[in-house]
Amino acid sequence: MSPSPTPMSKLTLEISSDLAEALRLPEDERLPRLQRELAIRLYQKGLLSFGKARELAALSKWEFHELLSQEGIERSYDEEELEDDLATLEALG
To answer: How far apart are CA 62 and CA 83, in angstroms?
Structure first.
């Protein structure tokens, strides 16, 4: 008998309203900004790949690359990215 599929887990971060209001950002910019900041730092520390970090930031590959550049963060090029690029080239060729 095969095991049942593992349900997808979801991570929720709760921030108090006092802390959220302390952010010097308009309310509608808070969540996307926090997602981008978290994505940048996790990528910088090597805890997320470029692809997963840009997914967290909800940005395109090029937008996230530009954001990293603006933040002065060098991109690392890992094996996962190489495989993605090779797959893209194969699909195009």
So the answer is: 18
